[in-house]
Design a protein that fits this description.
Mean pLDDT: 97
Shape: globular
Strand order of the largest sheet: 8-5-4-3-2-1-16
Bound molecules: zinc ion
Largest sheet: 7 strands, mixed
Structural class: alpha/beta
Low-confidence stretches: none
Length: 258
Amino acid sequence: MKIELLPSSFDGNGRATLEQRLTCFVIDDRVAIDAGSLALALTADQHNQVRDIVVTHPHMDHVASLPIFVDDLYSTLKEPVRIYATQEVIDLLERDVFNWTVYPRFSELDNDYGPVLQYVAIPPGQEFSVAHLRMTAISVNHIVPTVGLVVSDAKATVAFSSDTAETDEFWHTVNRQKHVDALLVEASFPNSMSRLAEVSRHFTPAALGKELQKLNHNGLDILAVHLKPAYRQTIIEELDALGIPKLGVMEPGRVYEW
Ligand SMILES: [Zn+2]
Ligand SMILES: [Zn+2]
């Protein structure tokens, strides 16, 4: 399974930088998890192939360019873009994003070939298929309805926490997997901002360190994501100080393979 965290920041020469402002993972160049930078940083091939997008929650950093992505493809789509999300999140996207005010309600529009956007409601806790992948969505502890994901293909299993504070069901589901190759987990704020992390339901490195004691698997790659750009260096140092084997920070723009 090939996974890339799409870049969302670029320098004056257009080169991707390491700061992560938006969240969007692309799996095997064809399935997206969240859509923060989806319309901004795909290769041409990925742009032609990605039609399945799993949205973990409706926060702007996870859906910012989703409307633009559909808009760019509008007249050329021969099949709809499929958005997989819990019914709660679908309702919020329709109410707050695709509401004819912020952007058109694409789910009511057709091009010459048919519908351009279709929702697929995903049942939390039950396995579902997205393209060639099997996924399970687990409700996590964030300020809006949010799911983490366990994603498998024939070879590998990777868990995504999405945005969350202390949570249990996600770890139970991860622990039930026979084998887990990688965990992509959020670490948003430095330890000095634990109060803000608590009220906005995110992890600091210290909170993540405690949380990882719930993980029963050993030897997997643990990659931190969602580091607030302004505190990136401090968060990296605090993650290093945890001394957890194979814990690193995921680099936007780099392709990881498990
Ligand atoms: Zn969020
Ligand atoms: Zn976020």
